[in-house]
UniProtKB/TrEMBL annotation:
The protein's name in its UniProt record: ABC transporter ATP-binding protein
Molecular-function GO terms, alphabetical: ATP binding; ATP hydrolysis activity
Lineage of the species this protein comes from: Bacteria, Bacillati, Bacillota, Bacilli, Bacillales
Keyword ATP-binding among record annotations: yes
Keyword annotations from UniProtKB, A to Z: ATP-binding, Nucleotide-binding, Transport
Species name: Shouchella clausii
SMART domains, A to Z: AAA
Domain of life: Bacteria
Xref: SUPFAM superfamilies: P-loop containing nucleoside triphosphate hydrolases (SSF52540)
């Protein structure tokens, strides 16, 4: 098990991470969900031993990571947010280079490189320089590098940044298969709630350096009931209506959408109130729907802000 116990990290006067308690059991897929600037990458830097905590302790299998750096690093694979590849080398050469850093035996490394190129569907491009690859191909190769030494834990920091939707889904399917069928333990950070919902069994929601919620998807979603999230669509959005909704005593959180507003409310039947407020503002209702809560709704409920804000 990988654990953070009361971990904090400060940079001069800025406390980027504040007293975080987090654990990842072997075989789990755990998500770190939060907006940009929430402290997720700083947590990953500490977990992967790139930087030391200002306070608290990181433990692996019950022992401080600081006392077992080399064996710990050999058992984790890291997919950084930025592409960490040599652009002038081929896909095959990149994998061989990183495999040699782990001192893999020549024959075993050659076989492992072939396996990963096949897994990532890059075999037919293995001799070509990485600079000629698409964004999605680079992301898949970035993942392959993290897997070259057959790690037990895979730590991924926003690995789908900058790629098209098709490539993004392709990469997510690869990661899910690694956890479900190959037994890897996954720690995955993202500000895309749909990625975390797709991949992760258990989730930590992070905001401004602190964990504000933790649990399984169903446990976290129970923070707000299914009856408390409304999708209101209107003919015309007005500043007056938005202000009335935001200030209403039964509206806990409000997010503007393309055609109206998403409203989190503790009141079970807000339909009459919403109808009257829309009519009073001079526009008309196109639809009001009760929806099942998402992780985005929970974040909105807890912070009053969107994950993308």
């Amino acid at each position: 098990m990988l654990e953070l116990e009361g971990v904090s990290k400060s940079f001069a006067a800025v406390e980027a991470v504040k007293n975080v308690h987090l654990h990842v059991r072997q075989g789990e897929a755990v998500g770190l969900l939060g907006p940009n600037g929430a402290g997720k990458s700083t947590l990953i830097d500490m977990l992967t031993t790139l930087t030391k905590p200002t306070a608290g302790e990181i433990r692996f299998e019950g022992k401080p990571v600081a006392n077992q750096l080399k064996p710990f690093r050999n058992r984790i694979g890291v997919v950084p947010q930025e592409i960490a590849l040599f652009q002038e080398l081929s896909a095959e050469e990149n994998l061989l280079f990183f495999g040699k850093l782990y001192k893999l035996e020549k024959a075993a490394l050659k076989q492992r490189v072939a396996e990963l190129l096949d897994l990532m569907e890059l075999t037919n491009r293995k001799k070509e320089p990485v600079r000629t690859f698409s964004g999605g191909m680079k992301r898949r190769l970035n993942l392959a590098v993290a897997l070259i030494h057959k790690p037990e834990y895979l730590i991924l920091d926003e690995p789908t940044v900058g790629i098209d939707p098709h490539s993004r889904r392709h990469l997510l399917d690869f990661i899910k298969d690694l956890q479900e069928h190959k037994g890897l333990t996954i720690l995955y950070t993202s500000h895309y709630m749909e990625e975390v919902e797709f991949l992760c069994n258990r989730i930590y929601i992070v905001d401004r350096g602190s964990v504000i919620a933790e649990g399984t998807q169903s446990e976290i979603k129970r923070i707000i009931s299914p009856q408390s999230t409304y999708e209101l669509t209107v003919a015309v959005k007005t500043a007056e209506l938005k202000e009335q909704l935001a200030s209403h005593e039964h509206v806990q959180a409000l997010k503007e959408t393309d055609e109206g507003y998403r409203i989190v409310s503790a009141k079970n039947n807000l339909f009459p109130t919403l109808l009257h407020m829309v009519e009073d503002s001079g526009t008309t209702v196109k639809g009001i729907h009760i929806k099942q809560p998402t992780l985005e709704d929970v974040f909105l409920h807890l912070t009053g802000r969107s994950l993308r804000d």
